[in-house]
Amino acid sequence: MDEIKSIIGTILQDAIQDAIEANELPITTPPDIPFSPTKTPDHGDIATPVALGLAKSAKMPPRTVAETIHKHVDLEKHSIISNLEIAGPGFINIYLSNEWLFDTIRNILKEQQEYGKSDIGLQKKIQIEFVSANPTGPLNIVSGRAAAVGDTLVNLLNAVGYDAVREFYVNDAGGQVERLGQSIDIRYRQALGEHDIEIPDGGYNGEYITDFAKEIVVEDSDTHLKLSDDERILLFKEKGIAHLLGQQKTTLERFGVNFDVWASEKTIRDSGKPDDIINIFQEKDYLYENEGATWFKMTDFGDDKDCVVIRTNGEYTYFVPDAAYHLDKHDRGFTKVIDLFGPDHQGHITRLKNFVKALGLSDDWLEVDIIQQVNLVDSDGNRQDMSKRQGQFYTLDLLIDELAEAVGERYAVDVARYFFLMRANNTHLDFNIELAVTQANENPVFYIQYAHARCCSIFQQAREQGFEIKPVEEVNLELLDAPQEHELIRKAAEFPSIIISSAEDREAHRIPHFLHDLAGIFHPYYNQHRVLDLSNKDRSTARLILVECIQTVLANGLRLLGISAPESM
RNA sequence: GCGCCUAUAGCUCAAUUGGAUAGAGCAACGGACUUCUAAUCCGUAGGUUGCAGGUUCGACUCCUGCUAGGCGUGCCA
Fold first, then answer.
1. Which of A29, A74, A343, A499 could be disulfide-bonded to A373 (CB atoms 3.0-4.6 Å)?
2. Strand B: which of residues 24-63 in chain A lie with Cβ below 7 A?
3. All structural domains of chain A
4. ipTM score assigned to the predicted complex
5. Would you say the C-beta of A95 is within 7 Å of strand B?
């Protein structure tokens, strides 16, 4: 589709140039040709509002401009265009010849699993950091959304020719994991009979902490009581991190997300790089002392208040290792870094970007996108608090478990991923778990998967019934003359440009919608037209070619989403 | 108070850079299995795109001001 746009664009620009030279269009030079999608076949295969844009500078009515351009397009010369029409306020609707449709078919069959890919990324190194949940509890469903989106964005970027990697930043140092150690310690001692102690404010009081503390008691009995408080908390912190991080990894694997790099905050801190950051800021005069703490002049970068980088107790706030971490990313050679943050980190974006700027990196090197919150809603429409500190949260594992109960383990991950991916990142997603489970059989993911399974089934039948499956060069594609068949091919032809826009705009949800649209053309087609017809074997052969194309596009799209493409359902 | 996000059909959501008649699914109602799989299809219905202005050939989209909801605004991460 992109190729065809540039071909048509050139033809139209030439026509405009001819019109200018014939003194029929009072402008100096042909503009870039914009294209708008055609919503109905009545508007042709592609359309351009170029005449509307030129109307002002040419001081002519838009329809007249369109007609002037039209006059200078020689249809005899361009066999790819079957017809041009002026419509509405001055749109030029372009109807492409069948040969273009057949080229699309040949291209899909030639490319197979590669169909849809492109190379606009020039193999530039891009990193996407996502999930990066604290190792202080199980992953919740917001992390699930981030996991699905991040994983798919990497797939999309790789599909358009970037060299993209998945990275998870483990916050295994700092105050949060300190509290984790303390919380486990309290539960451990409680399990051993101390009852006059409680989890402090800001600690973790989820049941999983109690369970884990009990496990420690079972394995090690009361031996850790001999340690000093500090030693014991340190030990429990490390044990807790290992345990919970392990759990998160297991969950992510089950969810089909495999990170390329697990970066550690502790490693960053131990590397001395945070000290370098302080030195750099010091040299650039971005720091000052106040009330015993060291502050960064965030107001120099337009923020409304400065922020502490070294606390009164001498420890760095998380900004410093975070800045060091991003400098480290830069040193690893990424030309662009994308962080997917949860909504609770939104206040961090401006500051982080300012720190990156303070380090001398360009403004667009770091991109931060928010994956908006997921509200768990019950059947009465009440929202449930998912704070880890409260211990009331809905885990990703629990979600997959419940889906598995309804639709089987095989499809549970498919359904979860699809639900997370079908919405734009910046929408607040109300996830009604009861609805997702009860309506599972009418889930849109099955609609798409079923379309794929039907394609497979047709080929199964074709083989059993002895239909000849010929290579495309030997098939008369002119026999594909039903309007729905052309519609299917046109839709399939959009696939590569959908991937590009989806990747560049970081809008993964366009892929599920595209696939749903494609399946939505295929199912009616299937119901109204028999592919395998013994009384018309030539047409059957041609239709098998079309079915293979649809199957290929569906499979390629589902693969990008990390969703399975079943051969039968 | 300040900052970010959101507001589109009864519900959940789409709508490439501003483009033609704002689209799907679910829910509702009526139909279609002797058929390549009915996890499907066909039909009906559903709208002042939160409100008020502005920009222009044209606005769900951009600007200003409101309203409502969410989040952020810690020497937590």
1. A343
2. 34-40, 42-44, 47, 49, 52-53, 55-56, 62
3. 2-96 (3.30.1360.70), 125-171+258-279+315-370 (3.40.50.620), 175-254 (no CATH), 376-441 (no CATH), 443-561 (1.10.730.10)
4. 0.94
5. no
